Amino acid sequence: MTATVQVGSRKQLFIDARFFDRASGVNLRMNPPLQSPEPVLQADKQWEKLGIGGYNTVIREGERHFRLWYGAQMKSGGPQEGAVRLCYAESEDGVSWQKPEMHLVSFQGSTANNIVAPLDERQSMQGATVYIDERAPADSRYRLWSKYQPRDDEIEAGVQPGLWAMHSPDGIHWTYDEDQPNPPNQMCDTQNVFFWDDSLDLYVGYTRVHETQRRDEAAEMKLGKRYRSVGRITSPDFKTWSQPTLIVLEGDALDLEAPLPPRSMDRPQVDYYTNAVYKHPEADDAYFMMPAAYYHWEASDFPATMDVQLLTSRDGVIWSRQGDREPFIRRGLDGGPSGGMVMANVWPVLTETEMWIYYSGRGSRHNDEVRDGWNTGLFRAILRRDGFVSADASLSGGEFVTPPLAFDGQALELNVDCGGGGWLLVELQDEEGRPVEGYTLKTCETIVANAIKVGVSWQGAGRRIPTDRGPLRLRVVMRSAKLYSFRFVRKEDQTA
Fold first, then answer.
1. pLDDT value at position 496?
2. Is the pLDDT of residue 225 over 70?
3. Does the reported pTM lie above 0.90?
4. Fewer CB within 10 Å: C terminus or N terminus of the chain?
């Protein structure tokens, strides 16, 4: 007997084969978002001289209140005094942004700017992620985690650079946490992502790993170059973090053995620069990673370009590549403000029907000696709500049967796109795979919808499903359709 899957009343996404006990003619497909060609935010201030940085955070608070914390670059290369600042912008629609004068941090003798951190213009802060921590006290409701570079005189006095945390009551007025850096000696030259994982009752952090846990062909140091990978640490209190860093993404044999031009060097040809890990807020165990893959296979780091891939996970530790490793977010046309490198930023913004994924773009490549900061920007990509991956059937049709599902609800809702000529039917089966009377394919009302939420109905029973028979299987038969998710919903949560 196939093991029962506990689904309760939470959303279930097709990020792997969990719901395919038997399947024919149905395949999982990655669905790249629609990328807007023009940036929604560009550099136009003197403190943004080298452009909009790669590491940014957009959070929607309220219907018409979008907030952005972004990196403004003044210098490039290794850690330097005053290289990067954290700036603030606001929007009513997530597209048109204003940069208000905050009068908090001095820049070249004036506070008439939108800089909110670090607190001294000779300090540098790169890779900050802002997070609203509902568990924290009111004065620490906003947290950030960032690579931090003190002033030169502070370093001489013993202040350590590294991964620092700050807190704020409003996202504007920031205070350094005590006992920094925390954790000490943590690699952090990336957008450092953290959140409270309610599945684990722990804070989970994703950051950079330079040291390796195993010396295989993927993690080997070659030509003096460190191999960039994604690591994971956890903490019960955002103060004490697990060590050593667990490597959760690095180049594997397929990455390293991909065909290359004749002049290529004996070195890893790709590493993973950022992570943009995101835990779905409406699912128990659906994690997404959108890492920036950095390609460099010649001694000069040529081609020195980046695009974004998509990975999924059920636990945040073991990750699966989606879309045959094709780009999820592609770099733009050469010469444009996203023609050299793109990096996905954290926390997709949710609307009723869409997910907005903000990403940074640069016209320059990673090895360019001269970088045009004005040819950079923040971009928006639009994805269908929960549309990262779907279970697809072609015109020839297909079907699948789930394992037994232990659920909590009185109705079944789908997120499905049947296009113009597709359709979908659902049959309820008992644990042994026998059709439940009154809930067969023949009695199912044919679904031809393209909807984020559509209820499944059966002739004679309507949308009400039997709740007294224990776990049930779903048999889904479909043609020319894309199924993104399903959910057993309680009566009070049902759509009209």
1. 61
2. no
3. yes
4. C
